[in-house]
Amino acid sequence: MHEFVAKALRDRPWQAVTLERPQPLEALPTPALVLDRAAFEANLTSMRDHLAAHGKVARPHAKTHKCPVISHTQMQAGAVGICVAKVGEAVAHAAAGVQQILVTSPVTHPGKIAVLASVARQIDGLDLVVDSIVGAELLRKHWPGDARLGVLLDVDVQMGRTGNHSAESLRRIRETLADEARFHCKGFQHYAGNLMHIASYTERRERSLAAWEQALALTADVFDATPEVITGCGTGTFDIDVAIEQITDLQVGSYIFMDREYVEIEGRDSPTLNAFTPSLSVACTAISAPTEFGVTVDGGFKAFASDSVAPLPLDLPDAKFRFAGDEHGVVLRGKGDQEPLLGRVLSFMVPHCDPTVNLHDVYWVRDADGLVREIWPITARGAVW
Ligand SMILES: Cc1ncc(COP(=O)(O)O)c(C=O)c1O
Fold first, then answer.
1. Protein residue with least CA distance to atom 2, ligand 1
2. Where are the alpha helices (DSSP H) in 24-109?
3. In CATH, which of 3.20.20.10, 3.40.47.40, 1.20.1050.40, 3.10.20.740 is domain 37-256?
4. Using one digit for the tens of pLDDT, what is the confidence trace for 43-61?
C-alpha cells in the first residue's frame, strides 16, 4: 500500500521547465501560484547571511514549498540539509536527488518505516525524529539491518503536538536505539510552533527563549556527550533563537515566501515582520461583477488556504477579499474605486503559504520585468502522508 503511493510520487516530474516564450501574468491559467524570483532569492540570501553572522546554518523546512527545485537551491545557498514533515515529502525529494533529509514528525507505522528505509538506501543522510518508546521499539523491529538512520529525539515543553516532555522517557528512547549500528542518535529537535505568530516581538522573544531554556534543561542528562545536532525554530523566531548557543541549525520554512499571517506580526525593530519580502502570490481573473460593490475572481477555497486570515489584494489599495465558495472569491472594492476590473488579472498575497502551496501543481516563476519564464513543479503536492 505505502510502496504503491511512494512509487507514484517517485515518477512525478520535478525539474524546472523553461517556457518557450516569456509570458505575462495575463497569459497564465488562473488561479496561478506565482513566485517572484528576485524576492525569493533575496530572502534566501538574507537568511543565509543572518544565520552565518550568528554562527548558525539553515536546515530549511520543505513542508513550506514541497518543491525539489527549491530544496536544491536552498542546499546550494549553504543549508546543512532539508526538513520534511511527511514520509511522502521525503520520497519525492529523495527521488529528485536531494540529500540530508530530516523527517520532523514521528513515524509509527511499519509501512512508512519500510518506505523510509528505501529512502535511506537511496540518499546520503536520512534522519527521523522519535518521541516515544513505542516509536523506538517499532524502529528496532522493522528497520532493516542494511540501512542507516540518524535519530533525533523530539522534545516538547509546551506545544502539545509531537515531542516528549519527560527526561526519563527521552533517555529510555535513546537507550532503546543506542546499542544498534543501524541507528545513530545525533541529538534533539525542539519546535515551538505555538509561538511563531505571537504578534508582540517582546513576548515572542521571551517565550521562545524560555522554551529553549526548558528544552535544554530537560535534555541535560539525556545524552552522554554533547549532541551533534540541536535543531528547531521557525521564521517567527529566526532572529531570536540564534541567541541560544547550543542550537546548531534553524528549521526555517516560510521565510522564502512569507504570507499574510507572517507579515502582520511585529518585527524586531518594525511594526511588521519586514526582514523578508513577500514573494508568493496567487493571480486570479475577475470573471463576474454581479453587484456594484465588488468583482468576483476565479479563486476560492481551492486556490487559497482558508485556515487563517483572508488573501490580501495586492493591486487595489483598501480592497478586501471575501471567500465566496470553493472556486470563487469576491473582491470588495475600496472606497471610491471605479477602475473597471472585469477580465483583469489581480494578484493576492497568500494567507498561509504551506497549505496554499499544497493546492497547486506548479510555481510560475516571474522575473523582474514581470514576465514568467520558468515553471517549477510542486512535486510533493498532495503528499500528505
Ligand atoms: C517542525 C517544524 N519545523 C519548522 C517549521 C517551519 O516554520 P516556519 O514556516 O514558521 O518557518 C515548521 C512549520 O510548521 C515545523 O512544523
1. 191
2. 37-53, 68-76, 87-95
3. 3.20.20.10
4. 999 999 999 999 999 999 9
